[in-house]
Amino acid sequence: MAALGEYILPIIILLITATAFVKRLPAIDLFIEGATEAIKCMSMLFIRLLALVFSVKLLLNAHIFHVLSDKIAMIGKGAIPAELWPLILLRPVSGAASLAVTEEIYQLYGPDTAVGLMASVIQGSTDTTLYIVTVYFGAIGIKRTKEALSIGLAADFIGIITAVLVAKWFFF
Amino acid sequence: MSMIWLSFVFTGMLSLIITSNASVIVPLMIESVEDTVVISFHLLVMMVFWLGFMKIAESAGLLAALTYMLRRPLKWLFPEVTPENPAYGYLASNITFNLLGLGNAATPLGLKAMQLMHAFNGNNERPSKSMLTLIVLNTSSLALYPTSIIALRTAAHSSMPSRIIVAVILTSAITTIVAVGFVKIYTKSHCGDR
């Protein structure tokens, strides 16, 4: 299936070009018209992304997540393994950092242990909410992100609880 | 976002000062720009190709065909977007690409849909219900085959990398439903039937 997955992109493009052939469309002009929009979009996005990357980098540098996760792990003892807290806190904030934490968990405990399986489900079933909200609203210049962020983060919270419950029910 | 950003920068600066590590600030700034260039570059590559090919697909009527196949879920998810709105085709392709696990290719299409819905919403400062729905659909990352996490598990020498597939899909599905429910409840209590 993984090998099959690689064929999806060329198949979609093949289908598009085949239809354009049959309908004798001015394909290259259309392609350029669409692609030009990408440049416009990016010019709005770049600085917004930079602001986000900078603030996340500062926060990561402060090692605040490890301090926080130690504290929370003491409160939530038993329900969620303490090793998972850094991942849970980082997942909505930084894609690269949460990926690194997942890899670290794999290395320390192994991908097929209880912690490794839970980390897999958390990493695989949620996404970097801050980044997605920044990109989707930044591209059109909407500044009011309150609703999207609160709903997105609330959904992440539910997602993590679900991930732990599903993993427990599924694997043990 | 403004408050989150401020608290991140504030906390970061405070810790730099407390730990007397002030000299790393300039390297951190340089790294931020480097990282943003890399991220933006990847995004730009995806946008150039997919917005280009999708324009052809749009003219060829392929997006309309996809929209027709997905008309029921689209109608339910994005009630105030009319089928005549060109955003429909991009919403349909964003959802399809996400389900196929092509998250990178899905993003530009989602952005385009966002742009079209924003224009339809009269370029209002306040995002519409459908715009919020599109965002939560993309943050809850529902895919029929979670490619990246399986690749990660394979790289870590898992004895059974695909063991988590059903659990991941189930979790994503529940989160997606809950998130869409949140949007429906939130918009009902805050903006009436808008």
UniProtKB/TrEMBL annotation, chain A:
GO cellular component: plasma membrane
Keyword Transmembrane tagged: yes
Keyword terms of this UniProt record: Membrane, Transmembrane, Transmembrane helix
Cytoplasm recorded as keyword: no
Domain of life: Bacteria
Chain segments annotated as transmembrane: 7-25, 45-68, 148-171
Name this polypeptide is given: Spore maturation protein B
Species name: Halolactibacillus alkaliphilus
Gene name of this polypeptide: spmB
TrEMBL record, chain B:
Keyword match Transmembrane helix: yes
Highest taxon of the lineage: Bacteria
Transmembrane segments annotated in the record for this chain: 38-66, 87-111, 131-152, 164-186
Keyword Transmembrane helix part of the UniProt annotation: yes
Keywords carried by this UniProt record: Membrane, Transmembrane, Transmembrane helix
Protein name per the record: Spore maturation protein A
